[in-house]
Structures are given as structure tokens and as C-alpha cells.
Design a protein that fits this description.
Layout (H helix, E strand, L loop, with lengths): L4 H7 L2 E7 L3 H12 L4 E4 L8 H4 L3 E2 L8 H17 L8 E8 L2 H11 L8 E3 L1 H7 L10 E10 L2 H16 L2 E3 L4 E5 L2 E4 L2 E10 L10 H5 L4 E11 L9 E3 L1 H4 L3 H4 L5 H10 L1 H5 L5 E4 L5 E4 L3 E3 L8 H14 L6 E12 L5 E7 L2 E6 L4 H17 L4
Parallel strand pairs: 1-2, 1-10, 2-7, 4-12, 10-18
Antiparallel strand pairs: 3-6, 4-6, 5-6, 8-9, 9-10, 11-14, 11-15, 11-16, 12-13, 13-14, 17-18
Helix pairs in contact: 2-7, 2-14, 4-14
Bound molecules: flavin-adenine dinucleotide.
Length: about 375
């Protein structure tokens, strides 16, 4: 894919849409445009996706997303994932979610959630019923459980490359890798390796705030969130039919935590799980095709987060894991860090530097769950809605 600057400038390749960033948000925009027959180029500075989009759980979550826009986008994105995964050769490794709760105060939150429109299709389970989904679930961690059928789980580190290949091979999307975009003055896009022309440009830079449109992005008071993640291998084979969460999830995911009924629970969590709450820990456990478990996560905020993974934070996450799942002898086989964009007062923004340029950033930990919905919205805005 190497091309010389002079050659590119002479030919000035032209597209309907150029997308900067080949994470899930960039790919979602490319897909929405390609489905409408637009010619699309995706440009990324890395050789392969290496940002938040391949470091996450691959947990496409509907239930628990903030009420309103986020939940609506997640529902649409989940539909697109479900209809696209098979075509792109992406395996859906798990479906659904069991949120197991052990605190009395959680019951009120689960019941209140079930009474909202977001609770549609979800049910409350006894410990026994929850163990039908998760055999290794501790009964005393599942005094009441919320079951949701809506979630799907993909293996992000393979799903994102497969999605890019699908776009390239079946939708004719062109990918320029190892290519940093240095300026966007639509229709000219300057890259470190030459100039490209496109009728419209969507910039999806993830948490790179100081490159393109730095001043416009800074106006949203963005910062970064650093997360620690683990891969855990059970000693004996075990099947988790769904993803697993715990009371800490009820205190953090806004679809639950914003309910008035969550106040007593959050108070109790702040006292009894003080260190976990201070480190932004909530338990999510998903399972990979090889039986290993992806376990996380923690949340620490800084403009430039340090690159060090704390053993104390891992111990807190594993402590919660062991309180919820009975898997003696489990072994940690992998540890990694991820970062994503964060803003104090919004979960996403779309900025419009001009009629033909959009900057799109998800500023919370839900881009895998919402990107396909956002991509369609932006493409409709740029090229007009389809009837
Ligand atoms: C550990 C972890 C767990 C998470 N868990 C979940 C979860 O369970 N569910 C969920 O929905 N979300 C989750 N998220 C959040 C989700 O992963 C992100 O919201 C999403 O991946 C953001 O996608 P993106 O495409 O915007 O960013 P990225 O994946 O970071 O991609 C941005 C891309 O832009 C490129 N780029 C930037 N600037 C330039 C430039 N000037 N020129 C060329 N290329 C450029 C970068 O190289 C990069 O490839 C998690 C995130 C992390 C880190």
C-alpha cells in the first residue's frame, strides 16, 4: 500500500468520503457510507487497529446504557452488529448478560429498572435461575439478578480486523494504513504521505486530541480515561452463557445509576467497596471462544494517563471476581491497558468545522456499543437521509 508523495499529489485520488481513524467509530462511518454506494477511503496512522477498539471487552451493551440518546444508539448499533457479524465472518461469542447482585439495596434498582422502557425483554432471576446461565455463579452473590437478552459479545481483537476486511473486500472501501493525517481542509486531506481529495470528511481520532482540530476538540473539555484489563484462565473448563456483571455495575452504568432508587446502593458501595469505587472499578466478565475470561475494569482519568498497570488495582478487580464467581485456582494469563476519550458532561459529540467535515468522538466507555448508530446519523447528516 506504499505510495510516494509525488505520485499521490499528481493523481490526487478522489472519494465521496474520507474517514480519519480505523477504530470502530471510523469503520462504522465507512460502512454507513459504503452501504449507500459512496466511494470511501479510511486513513489510519497505525499498521493495524491498536486503540480502544481492540482493547475493550467486545461487549456490545444495550441494557444499562444511559437513558435516551445513548440507549437509542446502542439499540440501533446492536441491530447492525447482529446483521453484519455473520457476513463479515465475525463470531458472536456470547449473547445476553446476567447482572448478579448480593446487596439488598440492589433489588430496588433492578425492580425500578425493569419498570422503565429500557427494561423491556429483561427479567429478574432467582439465584438458581441465574446459575442456569452461569453455573459457576456463587449463590450468595446472586440474591437477585437482572437478566438481559439484548447484549452480544465479539472478540474485538479479531472482530475489528475482520470488519475492516469485510469493508475492503465486499464494499470496496480503500484503507490507507501507516498514514497520519496532518490537515483537513475539505476537499483536501493532507497526509504524511501525500494529498487526497474527498467531498466529505469524518474525523474519528479516538482520544488523540492534539492532532487534528485540537482547539475545537479542546472546547469539549475532553480528557482521557485509563483502564486495566485482565485475561483469566479457569483451571477446569466452564461455560458462561452470558456476560456477567455485579452490584458495582448498578452503581456505575448510567441506565441504572441515574435512577433515584440507586442512591442507597451507591451510598453502601461507597462505604463497603470504597477502594473499588475510588478506582472506578466495576466487574464485567466475558468469555472468549477458547474458554478464557476477559475481566475488567478500572477507570482513572488524566490528560496523559501514566502507562503503568497497578497490581493493587488488579487485586481489587480479582477480589470482586472471586466474590461473584467460584473458580478456585484461576490464573491471570494476560494484562493490558486501554484508554478512551472522556468528557465531564456528555457521552459523545459531533462537531462541524464546515458543511462537509465532521469530528465525531465518543467520550465514554460505550463506543463499541453505539458506533454503528452514530455512523448512520453522521452519514445521513452529510449526504441526506434515505427514505
Ligand atoms: C479497556 C476498555 C474497555 C472498554 N469496554 C467497552 C465496552 O465494554 N463496551 C463498549 O461499548 N465500549 C467499551 N470501551 C470503549 C470503546 O472501546 C471506545 O469507545 C471505542 O473503541 C472508541 O472507538 P474510536 O474508533 O473512536 O477510537 P480508537 O479505537 O481509539 O480509534 C481511533 C483511531 O484513530 C487513529 N487516528 C487518530 N488520529 C489520527 C490521525 N491524525 N491520522 C491518522 N489516524 C489517526 C488512531 O490511530 C486510531 O486507530 C472500552 C474501552 C477500553 C479502552
Amino acid at each position: 500500500m506504499l505510495f510516494r508523495r509525488r505520485t499521490l499529489e499528481k493523481r490526487m485520488p478522489s472519494y465521496d468520503l474520507a474517514v480519519v481513524g480505523a477504530g470502530i467509530l471510523g469503520l462504522a462511518h465507512a460502512y454507513a457510507a459504503a452501504k449507500r454506494g459512496k466511494s470511501v477511503v479510511v486513513i489510519d496512522r497505525d499498521a493495524q487497529a491498536n486503540g480502544a477498539s481492540v482493547r475493550n471487552f467486545g461487549f456490545v451493551t444495550v441494557t444499562g446504557q444511559g437513558a435516551g440518546d445513548c440507549w437509542t444508539m446502542a439499540r440501533r448499533a446492536r441491530e447492525v452488529w447482529a446483521e453484519t457479524a455473520g457476513r463479515a465472518g465475525i463470531e458472536i461469542v456470547q449473547r445476553g448478560m446476567v447482572l448478579a447482585s448480593r446487596f439488598e439495596e440492589s433489588e430496588a434498582v433492578i425492580d425500578a429498572f425493569l419498570g422503565t422502557e429500557m427494561g423491556e425483554g429483561c427479567t429478574r432471576l432467582t439465584a438458581e435461575a441465574a446459575q442456569d446461565h452461569i453455573a459457576c455463579l456463587r449463590a450468595d452473590a446472586a440474591r437477585a439478578s437482572l437478566y438481559s437478552p439484548h447484549e452480544i459479545r465479539v472478540e474485538s481483537r479479531t472482530a475489528i480486523p475482520l470488519l475492516a476486511r469485510f469493508l475492503e473486500e465486499q464494499h470496496g472501501v480503500r484503507f490507507l494504513r501507516n498514514t497520519a493525517v496532518t490537515a483537513v481542509e475539505s476537499p483536501r486531506i493532507e497526509t504524511a504521505r501525500g494529498v487526497i481529495e474527498a467531498e466529505a470528511v469524518v474525523v474519528c481520532p479516538g482520544d488523540d486530541f492534539t492532532g487534528l482540530f485540537a482547539e475545537r476538540i479542546a472546547a469539549y473539555n475532553v480528557t482521557r480515561c485509563k483502564l486495566q484489563m485482565l485475561r483469566v484462565q479457569p483451571v477446569k473448563p466452564v461455560t458462561l452463557k452470558t456476560a456477567v456483571m455485579s452490584d458495582l455495575g448498578l452503581g456505575r452504568y448510567l441506565g441504572y445509576a441515574d435512577l433515584p432508587e440507586a442512591a442507597p446502593l451507591k451510598q453502601r458501595l461507597d462505604t463497603e467497596l470504597k477502594a473499588e469505587r475510588e478506582n472506578g472499578i466495576h466487574l464485567i466478565v466475558t468469555q472468549s471462544a477458547d474458554g478464557s475470561l476477559v475481566v475488567g475494569d478500572s477507570h482513572h482519568y488524566a490528560a496523559t494517563p501514566d502507562p503503568f498497570a497497578s497490581d493493587d488495582v488488579d487485586a481489587l478487580m480479582l477480589g470482586e471476581f472471586d466474590r461473584v464467581l467460584d473458580l478456585p485456582g484461576r490464573v491471570v494469563t494476560e494484562r493490558w491497558l486501554g484508554t478512551y476519550a472522556s468528557a465531564p458532561d456528555r457521552w459523545r459529540f459531533t462537531d462541524k468545522p464546515s458543511d462537509s467535515v465532521r469530528i465525531v468522538i465518543v467520550t465514554a466507555g460505550c463506543g463499541a456499543s453505539t458506533a454503528f448508530g452514530i455512523g448512520e446519523e453522521t452519514i445521513n447528516d452529510l449526504f441526506g437521509s434515505v427514505a
